[in-house]
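ok new one. same drill as before - structure tokens go in, u give me an amino acid for every spot. 281 of them this time. try not to just spam alanines like last time pls lmao
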């Protein structure tokens, strides 16, 4: 339809970003809460993979591995270390930074492919949930992974349990894949939450997704709800390019209206499968 996410800022809270050619000059800001470095880097690879699912232009693969919104602006916020681990305090600091710089960089969407599954301190009153809720209340579209702890009920990770944010599960987790070195199947986090909130909100593919790696000209395959989440963020960048006046509540209601029912329980599929063409009708 000619939409690329142009002029829409997407902030990605993750392990950082490698300046792959597929991003050309669209990494417009980088903030590092782990090592406080000034220039973009990614010592894990996860953040680069996520960022390119959203906004890679496929330049180094002749268009084969192109992101959903190849014209969007990328704001990379490093809150996880080289092993993909991090502290809630760094995630919260990253969220505060995004909120204070949203006008400067035109940030409309926040992608959080990060979650915690420790039962203790991770309920609705946790600092992480309050942090994403504050970003939502500031008008940002916050898109969060459901986590890979399924298929039991109440396995959505925090902050995906927030009733405000858009929580994304994996639509094709029936395929056996390698997630963080483990063979997994039916791994997508299932609702409801501990407070009986129906989650996830929507699902998108997450099995064997090819995207940029943190090395020049290279791509790699990864799986999990971490990969499903940026597919939704990218689709929403296209939507906000088409309808820049939409609020985050408008966006969430439209997702509910345009999702494709897969005939699965709500605790597994949410409102259904992401259909980007239908979303942009």
């Amino acid at each position: 339809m000619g939409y690329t996410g142009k002029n829409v800022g997407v902030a990605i809270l993750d392990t950082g970003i490698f300046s792959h050619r597929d991003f050309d000059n669209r990494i417009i800001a980088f903030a590092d809460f782990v090592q406080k470095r000034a220039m973009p880097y990614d010592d894990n690879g996860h953040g680069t993979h996520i960022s390119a699912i959203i906004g890679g232009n496929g330049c180094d693969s002749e268009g084969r591995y192109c992101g959903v919104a190849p014209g969007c602006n990328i704001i990379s916020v490093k809150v996880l270390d080289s092993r993909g681990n991090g502290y809630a305090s760094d995630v919260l600091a990253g969220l505060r930074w995004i909120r204070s710089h949203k006008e400067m960089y035109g940030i409309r969407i926040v992608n959080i492919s990060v979650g915690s599954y420790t039962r203790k301190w991770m309920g609705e009153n946790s600092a992480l949930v309050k942090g994403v809720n504050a970003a939502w209340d500031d008008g940002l579209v916050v898109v969060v992974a459901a986590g890979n702890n399924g298929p039991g009920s109440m396995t959505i990770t925090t902050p995906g349990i927030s009733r405000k944010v858009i929580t994304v599960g994996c639509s094709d987790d029936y395929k056996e894949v390698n997630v963080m070195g483990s063979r997994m199947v039916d791994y997508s986090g299932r609702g409801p939450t501990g407070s009986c909130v129906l989650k996830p909100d929507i699902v998108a593919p997450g099995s064997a997704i090819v995207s940029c790696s943190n090395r020049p000209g290279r791509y790699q395959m990864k799986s999990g709800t971490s990969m499903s989440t940026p597919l939704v963020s990218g689709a929403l960048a296209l939507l906000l390019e088409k309808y820049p006046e939409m609020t985050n509540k408008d966006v969430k209601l439209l997702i509910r209206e345009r999702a494709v029912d897969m005939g699965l329980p709500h605790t597994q599929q949410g409102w259904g499968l992401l259909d980007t063409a239908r979303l942009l009708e």
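The mean pLDDT is 95. and btw The helical segments are 46-55, 88-105, 127-137, 225-242, 248-258, 266-269, 276-279.
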